[in-house]
Task: inverse folding
């Protein structure tokens, strides 16, 4: 069955609501439970592969969660109006792809937390989907602006200071870059599959 | 011609020694008065002079880091700050031949004030006071390298100080002539001036990251007998207040340093130590991007 890419009447964004609730529930978990879900290098090598996905839903502070979730909710809610299945695909696959990229390209990182990578994936998937549907220049602007902001973050050493209350936590522009690529890849694949099926 | 008798008697009436010459009642009284005045001047002068002096003590970062003239030109490299930082704190060592140094306890208390400023920073992993025994006089960066290896620190905050004390007399010091006045009246004016500077160095690159000065001046009065104690109290108080000033400026300069790093004008590289935890964080910029794009798309569709 071809993925639905055409916009239609307003759909209640229950999937977005579920994702939002899930983020709050996981943030409220006691540390002993949360540690079993965290994206940590060693347990993943030992076979605890669920951490590749679940680790993104853990945050280091409430403000960290709220900022990440704000972008995720806006982008996911919009994408859900276009295609709920694409949203499901991005939510399921993008965190795993981002995790793999982080484990490969950031060898000194031992733990990771935060939905920002998924947020960027959703934004990118939304922009590309809109762009491929000939929605025009604004989405191209969004894509370029996203790429530019991620590049600036990667080059800006200052963002590494003071983002998190705990000094041992490093802001990871690499996760945003990986999220951008994952979102773009999934949106293009989805479009290709859609054309093939039709 | 025989001598006249009267003349002979006059000559004989003179005393045989100069001392005896002054034993006439009138002249003895004058001598006593002079002696009294002399003793009064001598003793009250001593009391008046008691405690009047100037005193100074100092330590110098330049003397510690660049002790030899030919080593003044240390070529600093680009600092690479590996976060989170491990910071060491110490007074620049000084060898004072008069034993007029700040006590170790006092130094520790003062450094704790600076440590509190750094503990509040999220990029500082640990901060510790370097024991005085670890630093040699004129030890330079070689000594700091040793301390770095021993204590595992990356950045050192060196504190130097310069304190001068002056004591002069005021009008009340006239009462010291009475001796008792030296215990009762505050005839001494004390002036204590302190200048402290904290300089933050990246040890591997020998680079000064930033510095923060602090100063204080205290004026007080004291009795002649209490001057020494008062000067000690003033010295300690002035050091503490100057250190408070340093911590305020340190806060300010630290914020400016972080801002310079963000603007790329601080000439440092930021890295994280292996084994760090990564965090994915989005800011308002992303929200604005999305909302801006949504608005633009709406306008685009309506055109």
Result:
């Amino acid at each position: 069955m071809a993925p639905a890419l055409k916009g239609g009447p307003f759909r209640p964004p229950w999937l977005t609501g579920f994702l939002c609730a899930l983020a709050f529930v996981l943030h409220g978990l006691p540390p002993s439970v949360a540690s079993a879900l965290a994206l940590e290098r060693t347990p993943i090598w030992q076979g605890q592969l669920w951490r590749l996905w679940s680790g993104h839903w853990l945050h280091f502070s409430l403000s960290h969660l709220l900022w990440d979730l704000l972008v995720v909710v806006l982008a996911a809610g919009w994408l859900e109006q276009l295609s709920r299945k694409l949203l499901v695909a991005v939510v399921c696959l993008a965190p795993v792809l981002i995790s793999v990229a982080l484990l490969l390209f950031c060898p000194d990182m031992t733990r990771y937390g935060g939905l920002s990578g998924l947020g960027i994936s959703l934004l990118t998937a939304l922009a590309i989907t809109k762009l491929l549907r000939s929605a025009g220049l604004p989405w191209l602007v969004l894509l370029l602006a996203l790429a530019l902001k991620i590049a600036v973050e990667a080059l800006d050493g200052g963002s590494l200071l003071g983002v998190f209350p705990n000094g041992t936590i490093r802001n990871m522009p690499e996760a945003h870059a990986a999220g951008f690529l994952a979102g773009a890849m999934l949106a293009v694949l989805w479009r290709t599959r859609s054309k093939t099926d039709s | 011609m025989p001598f006249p008798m009267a003349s002979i008697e006059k000559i004989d009436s003179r005393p045989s020694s100069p001392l005896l010459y002054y034993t006439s009642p009138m002249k003895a009284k004058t001598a006593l008065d002079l002696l009294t005045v002399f003793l009064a001047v001598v003793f009250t002068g001593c009391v008046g002079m008691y405690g009047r002096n100037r005193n100074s003590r100092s330590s110098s970062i330049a003397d510690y880091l660049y002790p030899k003239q030919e080593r003044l030109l240390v070529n600093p490299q680009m600092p690479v700050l590996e976060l989170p930082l491990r910071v060491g704190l110490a007074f620049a060592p000084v060898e004072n031949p008069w034993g007029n140094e700040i006590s170790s306890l006092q130094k520790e208390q003062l450094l704790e004030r600076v440590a509190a400023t750094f503990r509040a920073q999220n990029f500082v992993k640990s901060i510790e006071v370097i024991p005085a025994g670890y630093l040699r006089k004129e030890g330079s960066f070689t000594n700091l390298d040793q301390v770095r290896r021993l204590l595992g620190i990356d950045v050192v905050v060196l504190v130097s100080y310069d304190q001068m004390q002056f004591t002069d007399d005021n009008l009340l010091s006239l009462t010291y002539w009475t001796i008792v006045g030296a215990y009762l009246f505050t005839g001494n004016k004390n002036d204590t001036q302190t200048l402290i500077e904290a300089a933050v160095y990246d040890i591997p690159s020998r680079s000064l990251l930033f510095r923060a000065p602090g100063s204080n001046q205290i004026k007080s009065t004291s009795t002649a007998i209490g001057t020494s104690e008062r000067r000690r109290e003033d010295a300690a108080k002035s050091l503490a207040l100057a250190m408070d000033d340093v911590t305020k400026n340190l806060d300010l300069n630290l914020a400016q340093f972080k801002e310079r790093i963000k603007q790329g004008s601080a000439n440092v590289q930021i890295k994280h130590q292996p084994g760090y935890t990564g965090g994915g964080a989005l800011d308002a910029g992303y929200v604005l991007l999305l909302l801006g794009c949504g608005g633009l798309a709406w306008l685009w569709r309506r055109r």
